[in-house]
Design goal:
The structure is a single chain. This protein is of the alpha+beta class. The chain has three helices and ten strands. The strands form two sheets. Strands 1, 5, 6, 7, 8, 9 and 10 form a seven-stranded mixed sheet that branches. It has a three-stranded mixed sheet with strand order 3-2-4, with no helix packed on it. Strand 6 and strand 7 form a beta hairpin. Helix 2 crosses helix 3.
Length: 200
């Protein structure tokens, strides 16, 4: 789905949730190749501005890549009805992804001071397998997460992903880890883990 189309529809849906005229919703989709710049993005972290379209976005965070082979989840929840705790919401997003990846026997983890979900690659190297970027307006969340199934990892070379330039902290995917999961299998894992974390 085109990024602009998704963002416009997401903002419309989030407004309807705030107004009480639509229920919460989570969308699972893919975008064509593009870079997005969050509210903390630094222009020097955009290394190849001519490589793909660059979209300024209201989510938190810095630069990230979206493209085929990556599952993007836009999460529109009424956080006030869920306790009004934004910090807990972000923690729940992390737990959601960690639980989904565990179903593929991937030990994915949080890292202090580094946003996203990481996998230990050994020898002091780590790979980021999922990005998190959220926005909350009047207690309704939108934007969300991106999980790497099998995107072209070289496309991340056009940015400093999430502002992390240390060569020991790269980007990975399920296929890069040797797990030939399908997008349908990843979706099933995300749906099951979402229910475990958010529907209790």
């Amino acid at each position: 789905m085109a990024y602009e189309t998704a963002i416009a529809a997401m903002e419309t849906r989030a407004a309807a949730i705030r107004a009480g005229t639509a229920p919460e919703q989570v969308w699972l989709l893919e975008h064509p190749s593009l870079y997005t710049a969050g509210t903390s993005a630094r222009i020097e972290d955009l290394l190849r501005p001519d490589r793909f379209p660059v979209h300024r976005t209201g989510r938190g965070g810095q630069y990230t890549y979206h493209g085929p082979g990556q599952r993007v989840a836009y999460v529109m929840l009424d956080l006030q009805a869920r306790g009004g705790d934004i910090r807990r919401y972000v923690c729940d997003l992390e737990e959601w992804v960690i639980g989904a990846l565990a179903s593929f026997n991937v030990r994915a983890e949080r890292r202090s001071g580094r946003i996203g979900i990481w996998v230990d690659r050994g020898g002091g190297r780590e790979g980021k397998i999922a990005a998190i970027g959220v926005r909350v307006r009047r207690w309704v969340s939108y934007h969300g997460i991106a999980v790497n199934l099998d995107p072209d990892l070289s496309h991340f070379d056009g940015i400093v992903p999430c502002g992390i330039a240390d060569p020991n902290f790269g980007v990975t995917s399920l296929h890069d880890l040797g797990i030939p999961a399908t997008m349908a299998e990843l979706d099933s894992a995300l749906i099951a883990s979402f229910e475990d974390v958010f529907e209790q």
